[in-house]
Amino acid sequence: MSELNPHHAVYVGSFDPLTLGHLDIIRRGAGLFDKLTVGIGLNPEKNPLLTPEERESMCRQVLAPLQNVEVKCFAGLTVNFVRECGAAVMLRGVRTLTDIELEFTMTLANRALDPAIETVFLMASEKYSHISSSLIKQIASLGRGNTAEQLKSFLPREIIAPLLAKYPDRQPQ
Ligand code: ADP
Question: Is residue 170 assigned to a domain?
Answer without folding.
Answer: no
